[in-house]
Amino acid sequence: MNPKDNPFLEDNTVVKRNYLAWVITIFAFIITTSAILYFFVFTPNEVNGPSMLPNYEDNDYLLVSRPYSWFFSSDFGQALGIEYKRNDVVVFSDKVEGDIVKRIIGMPGETISMKNNYIYINGVQYTETYDILNSLKKDGSKLVNNGPSITLTEQEFFLMGDNRDVSYDSREIGPIDVSRIKGKVIFRLN
Questions:
Q1: Closest CA relative to residue 180, chosen from 157, 160, 150
Q2: Can you give the residue ranges of the Peptidase S26 domain (predicted)?
Q3: pLDDT tens, position by position, 151-189
Q4: Phi-psi region of 121 (alpha: psi -120 to 50; beta: other; left: phi over 0)
């Protein structure tokens, strides 16, 4: 029977076209949604090296939430609870090393110093010991044991690796401006 003679039967080419249009639409939706999520919401990052041991190992894949970098210090971000906090693990961009994973130790506006191999934040001892061999360089100055302190601006963070002995962090490269922070680590993928 010819499909044209029976209104309840569809032409096979029409069915194929509808199916193809449906597949293309679904594929476009998946690609668009993935791109939006990747560029605006979440991005994967990899830990390179042992600087975050024992909490994160070399080659661990992490999921980073990007809205933290957009809404930091905004009323909207604070209302949603999207703000960086001390001990958050973040990813920041470095001209030399690329993307680097570190932990927030010092917050904007705080004063960081080192006395008797301990980090002090606003005069209060931070609970972890400091590797005396590493030092902070900022405009030619260094954060050294019993030396002068550094005060962070309202847009700067002091970041350190969990494995203090081998970490390339704010002790070497100075405070990190919020504009260089890509986002907060929210999940380990592997």
A1: 157
A2: 22-188
A3: 999 999 999 999 888 888 888 888 999 989 999 998 888
A4: beta
Mean pLDDT of the chain: 81
- Per-residue pLDDT, 134: 43
Give counts: helices (H), strands (E), the chain.
4, 13
- Which helix (H) or strand (E) segment is 65 a member of? strand 61-65
Distance from C-alpha of 131 to C-alpha of 86, rounded to nearest angstrom = 20
Catalytic machinery residues: 51, 102
Cis-peptide into 175, omega within 30 deg: no
Determine which helix (DSSP H) or strand (DSSP E) holds 173, and give its type and residue range: helix 170-173
Distance from C-alpha of 16 to C-alpha of 142, rounded to nearest angstrom: 70
Q: Give the whole-angstrom CA distance, residue 83 versus residue 71.
A: 7
Amino acid identity of 82?
A: I
Task: Say what the pLDDT of residue 131 is.
Answer: 44
User: Token digits for 95?
Assistant: 């001209």
Question: In residues, how long is the chain?
Answer: 190
CATH numbers and ranges of domains, the chain = 43-188 (2.10.109.10)
